[in-house]
Amino acid sequence: MASNKPKFYAVKAGRETGIFTTWAECEKAIRGFSGAVYKKFDSESAAQEWFSDNRSSLRETSLATDYEVYTDGSYISGQYSWAYAFVKDDTVIYEDSNVGKNPEAAVMRNVAGEIAAVLHAVKRAAELGVTIRIYHDYAGIAFWVTGEWKTKNEFTQQYAKLMNKYQGVYVFEKVKAHTGNKFNEYVDKKAKASLGISE
Q1: Max alpha carbon distance in the chain (Å)?
Q2: CA distance 144 to 156
Q3: Average pLDDT of the chain?
Q4: What pTM was estimated for this model as a whole?
Q5: pLDDT confidence of 35, banded at 50, 70, 90?
Q6: What are phi and psi of 57, to 5 degrees?
Q7: CA 156 to CA 111: how far, in whole Å?
Q8: pLDDT of 55 higher than 50
């Protein structure tokens, strides 16, 4: 016999985010959304608590940072690349890009490059003694670190481990891909150039 007890659905990443009271509403918010993050609860308070939990300050938007950092990755013919740019006052201050060195990671295609870009940027920030806000367009970049996505292979496990080691150096901010942000486009072109891809 079906239970009439109400269910609550919390959506952290989707077309819409928030708390929903029916599966139909939740499904509408997540269907076709790459990297949707959601969970079902028996009480509204439990749903709200999970929805509001940002796992320390990884996505704390009010934290003061020294630089905005844009990251991206690219992939072609079994090779991936990465690029990052440290931006201050609308100007690129530090930047780097290169071809990825881990052939096993290449199975993740351009995501391998995005992960590599973030790791290189965080290591550079630690060397400089600065804090950074990482703008990324792939949800897993933050969610593998917060534990909201399971790290299912050696590469993502190593990524989460290293990023946790550098906590306090960075915060994350998700942006939509290819929406005309000039620095997002800038690192996209840098990553492609490392692989000899011209647009």
Answers
A1: 63
A2: 7
A3: 83
A4: 0.71
A5: low
A6: -110, 25
A7: 10
A8: no
